[in-house]
Amino acid sequence: MNRKRFRDVVLGAVSLSLLAAAPARAGVVHNRQERQQQRIAQGVASGQLTARETARLENREAHLNREINGMRRFNGGSLTPSERALVNHQQNQLSRSIYRQKHDAETR
Predict the structure, then answer these.
(1) pLDDT(1) > 60
(2) How is 36-49 classified by DSSP, letter by letter?
(3) Residue whose C-alpha is closest to residue 54's, from 9, 106, 5
């Protein structure tokens, strides 16, 4: 009986740790979305982004957000590791675009 109880305790601990890790990872994606949105807003406020650049970046960000929400709906509220890697890659591309648009010669 001790082995069975030990196995149950270990399986329970592993399950709880996996459940606790899932929301934290979801928070990383959400926090990054928020930071990138703030960077766009700061670019608008400072005049570094034109209206056209802002619209383009906002559309790309909205498209990515819709894609993430669709992935989460399909998987019951979480992202698989491969989807998380894809989202990270897309967020990296968007981040580079924000930087390039803010630092190009165009201003408001």
Answers:
(1) no
(2) HHHHHHHHHHHT-S
(3) 106
Residue 2 has pLDDT above 70, yes or no: no
Query: ∠ at Cα 84 (99, 52), nearest 5°?
Result: 30
Residue 104 DSSP code: S
Note whether 78 and 72 are within 8 A (CB): yes
Stronger pLDDT, 87 or 12, i.e. the higher one: 87
Query: Token pair of 66, please?
Result: 């819709």
Region of 86 (left: φ > 0; alpha: ψ -120 to 50; beta: rest) is alpha
Q: 105: pLDDT confidence band, cut at 50, 70 and 90?
A: confident
Average pLDDT for 41-58 = 94
Tokens representing residue 104 in the block? 């190009």
User: Is residue 104 a contact partner of residue 65, using CB atoms and an 8 Å limit?
Assistant: no
As a whole number of angstroms, the distance between CA 89 and CA 19 comes to 25
